[in-house]
Structure formats: structure tokens, C-alpha cells
Specification:
This protein is of the alpha+beta class. It contains 5 helices and 10 strands. Strand 9 and strand 10 (159-162) form a beta hairpin.
Length: 183
Amino acid sequence: MANDLILGWVNGRYEIGPRALGNRSIIAAPFSDTTRMRLNAIKQREPFRPIAPVCLHDEAKKWFGSKRASPYMLFTYRATTEALAAVTHVNGTARIQTVTAATNGPMHDLLCAFRSRTGYGVLCNTSLNFNGRGFINNLRDLDAYTCEHNLDGFVVESRVYLKKSSNHYQEYMRAALSRSAAR
């Protein structure tokens, strides 16, 4: 994801409600406004719609000025950096979800790994669902959604499936081969 891949994320029991809380999500790096635009195209929404961040609880104060837990995306905070363009609304705010190892262990582990790679324990997080049909709960629907909506792949219970025909995946592989050849 640090290389601009957008992935479906399926872990544990499915969710019900208006927000993605880390079990059925589309996740991506939070740095580029083009990521926000691509996520809105994937979701078939208006291009101005904000994308919410999922953030390690211990980094919420650093990036969003939040001192309290926000596990359900109920609170809005002002972003403290311009580096998180994909998850910062035009008015400089973000409706954050905070995560700890106790509230969502797999998402916490993913955020920690992303932080060790990028310096930020923050990701874009939007719901993985078909419009009007609810969350995705089987591999056939997940695969269809990935192909129809141009995701770069998906993760199910920590197992990664990447779409080799994805332009972003191919760019990532070319860059990886170039780095490998340069060594």
C-alpha cells in the first residue's frame, strides 16, 4: 500500500452499519489527493466526498490532535499535517477511527507495519460494499468487486491476493525489479 495500491480488507466477522470499522474495508495510503479521488471513483461517489482515516490510537494526537479514543468514527478533528491529503477534508478536518491491539488486532498490526514503512500509522478506510447491497461476505463477491471497481487486490484473513493486471501493481513490480537490479 505504501506504493499506492488500493486493497480490499476482509478480516473476522462482517460489520453492519454506515461505517467501515476495519473488518470490511477498502484501504489505501493516506498521502495523495489522487488516492481520495480514485477511492471515490471506486465507490461510485461524488469526487468531493471525504475519505475517513483509520489511525493507531497512540498517533491520533500527533496527526489529528485527538486525545481520546474514537473507535466508531464519531468525532471530527483538525489534521495537524498536510501530508495526509487523502483523508483530510477541504476544511482541514477528518472523521477518524482510532485502533488499538485490543479493539482490532489485525488492523492494529497492519497500521504498525505501515508506520514502520512510512512513518505514519494512518490509512484511508472506506466501506467495502456494493451500493445498495451491503457488505461483501464471500470470496466470489469480493473477487467480482475487485475486478469491477478496479481495486489492486484484496487481503482476506492476512492472505494477500493481488490483481496482476492492475496498472498500479505492474508499476510497483517494475519499480521493485529496478531496485533489485540496481543492487
